[in-house]
Design brief:
This protein has 21 helices and no strands. It is mainly alpha-helical. Among the domains are: 227-274; 278-432, no CATH class. Helix 2 (28-52) packs across helix 7 and helix 10 (185-205) runs antiparallel to helix 11. The two termini are 36 Å apart.
Amino acid sequence: MSTILSLVSFLFLGAMLYYLKLFRQLSPLGRAVAWIAKGVSALALVYIYTSVYPKRSEADIFKYFDDSKQLTVLAYEDPSAFGRIFFGTWESKDLPYLNRMNYWFRSYDHGLANDNRMVIRVNALMNLMTRGVYGINLVLFLFLSFLGCYWIYAFLLHFNARKPSAFVAAFLIPSTLFWSSGILKESLLMFALGGFLWSLLSLSKKWELRYVMLGCLTLYMLLFLKIYILCALAPMVLMYALYCHQKSWWIAGLGAFGFMVLLYVAARFMMPQWSLFSTLQGKQFDFIQMAKSVNAGSQIWVIPMDGTWGTFLKLIPLGIWNTLYYPNAEMLKNELSWVAFVENACLFLLIIGGAVGVVQRKMAPMWVLGMLLFGFAVFSLIGMTAPVVGAMVRYKAPVLPFLVFGLLYLQPQCTIHFFNNQKIIQWLSTRL
């Protein structure tokens, strides 16, 4: 019965996406392709975590959902305790309830927001409506992820009207599609990232309450899901906004740099005991210890952080290289590693083509520079703090749409003309 309900939910939401005119920047065909791709990816993700890696207690697509059912039960047992835990104001008397969950507290935690709790809370809220049926929760996560990807698609079109490029970047990059098609943080992160950027773009054109509310909600989610994504995004958004206002690269760059310095000084003033280097060092140490505890087979070498600027500066290019290079040919053990390998190879080709394109054009648009800096900044942070190949492949997925879209724009004119003259690209340009 639960399978039938899940299928009906998937078809019902798919019909809504197909017929509603709310998604007017994407054709019904484009919506159908994107939604079906989400569904197929979700089935693949469930298959892998039930057949290839069958231990349910260690599978991310199940463990947060299972914890959420414990929280949902509490809504009926003790509604006041449920409310305190849900809104983050729990007390010591609520610890017996919290201890029912296996992942509310993390074994390795170095002062950063615990993003497990966001996924547990969202599932618990859904459970009140779905009666805890996993498949229906999964469909709702797919819907949230689709919304985020659509907002990213619309955001990308604002800068460059090439629909095939925007569609591929937002909906069809393998890693992004796969990891954002389950009951995972990445699905919520795509919703939050897309909604936040779309709300900022919409508010820059017209001040409307709905976009203010969307911006506040998605900003809150980014703060508690992946704050490093927000930290990497903020200066790029500011840099582009200053450039649009002043039409000066120098003012845009200095303004963004000044904002980051001011933010850092404010953080140190409000939290004197906090240190950026110690936070990154602790995060790296925690991740390495966790990888050792579970015998992660894809751990790679990275310079151990020691809290100095010299080591940090060395880690910036090393982090980017690790994220771009791995998995290499020696690590190809299954279909997932092959997909990641081919994806990285394509990314390398795009980077080479982009470099040639920049030489031809002499200059890149500010929005392209912002997207590339955003992508590589996140790559660097991931590569220096999470030196496990599987984690890097997954964690970089949400920023790939921006990196790929920026690189596609920079390709040499001969390459762009070649693809634009292909009938399939011309057909897609009129059908998406």
